[in-house]
Design brief:
The protein has 13 helices and four strands. The protein is an all-alpha fold. The protein has a domain at 45-270. The chain starts with a helix and ends with a helix.
């Protein structure tokens, strides 16, 4: 495995190269305050979903249901915000209704996380199959609830979260940085974080060292579900709507951002700092291509190509490191 400092150095070099290339292609306006501010509003929802994917991948697992979970959480919040209290009621725009909706959305995320944790940790189903099943089930539930329509028209209190700033910093970015900080503390400063890395590296040795693997996996997927619920708060507040199929392209991007950020596909290795740098790189590429008028469909294909190239590059670099150690 590549040393963490070495890979972070490679990521920083890649960030500089991408910044220079996007500036050359789009002009100095690419680095304007307006464009940087726009990217700061766009990055957080993908960033929080990637954190939800990251913690599952560190255990040598995966969570394919993060987007479906986020959409169901958003739909639940939207129903509370629009139908719990009549529009003519003075309570319709109350901050307490907004708080209730947010708590309900986070609760949905936690419940789905508990279901995933039960299937993976207790029933011992492969994470990819367990979360694929819950993804399909939750997507179906979301379609049944909404009948395929959009739920919109939220009070200003919820819209402020996704569209306003505090001290010049977009609110979504503040939420993302808080989530990233909390994740870093969990992984680097708590026994749970240590055990997550241990399970990803060697689950058998971890079990025989006295760790309850099932409990760790169960908690891991609950955290992943809660983070999906947090992403839903930003999504519905930015778009002023909720729907069953929002953000479907994000699933590939979360895996790409995690792998590009140094998260091992086989688990046990990866840091939040690398993830943040990879998200910035991807956001710059996405914004640069958008300014150039590149089709969104071509951009999605590009994400797949980059994911394959990153995996191949990491394999070659790690193989080279192994050969030097043997020599």
């Amino acid at each position: 495995m590549l040393r963490k400092t070495s890979y972070l150095g490679i990521l920083l070099i890649a960030l500089v190269v991408v910044t220079v290339l996007m500036t050359l292609f789009n002009g100095i306006g690419f680095l304007s305050l307006r464009n940087l501010r726009s990217m700061s509003f766009q990055l957080p929802e993908l960033g929080i979903l990637t954190l939800a994917m990251m913690i599952a991948m560190l255990t040598s697992g995966i969570n394919l249901s993060i987007i479906a979970t986020s959409n169901l959480s958003g739909i639940m919040m939207a129903l509370i915000l629009t139908r719990l209290v009549p529009a003519e009621s003075p309570l319709a725009g109350s901050i307490w209704i907004t708080i209730l909706a947010i708590l309900a959305g986070l609760a949905i995320g936690a419940i789905v996380g508990m279901l995933n944790g039960f299937l993976v940790a207790v029933v011992d189903i492969s994470p990819i199959l367990a979360t694929l099943g819950t993804m399909i089930m939750i997507s179906g539930i979301s379609v049944v609830i909404t009948e395929g329509y959009v739920i919109s028209g939220f009070p200003q209190a919820i819209l402020t979260i996704g569209n306003k700033s505090f001290l010049g910093i977009p609110n979504p970015m503040i939420i993302f940085l808080i989530c990233a900080g909390v994740m870093a503390v969990i992984l680097n400063r708590t026994p749970l974080g240590t055990r997550i890395y241990m399970i990803g590296s060697n689950p058998t040795a971890t079990f025989y060292s006295g760790v309850n693997n099932r409990k760790v996996l169960f908690r891991t997927y609950i955290i992943s579900g809660i983070y999906s619920g947090v992403a839903a708060i930003i999504m519905i507040s930015r778009f002023n709507s909720a729907k069953a199929d929002y953000g479907e392209s994000y699933l590939l991007q979360t895996v790409l951002a995690a792998v590009l950020g140094g998260i091992s596909a086989s688990g046990g290795f990866g840091k939040v700092s690398g993830l943040i740098i990879s998200l910035i790189i991807m956001q710059m590429i996405s914004s640069g291509l958008n300014l150039l008028g590149v089709s969104n469909f071509l951009t999605i294909a590009l994400w797949g190509i980059i994911l394959i190239l990153v995996m191949v590059l990491k394999y070659l670099l790690e193989k080279g490191v192994s050969k030097r150690r043997v020599a």
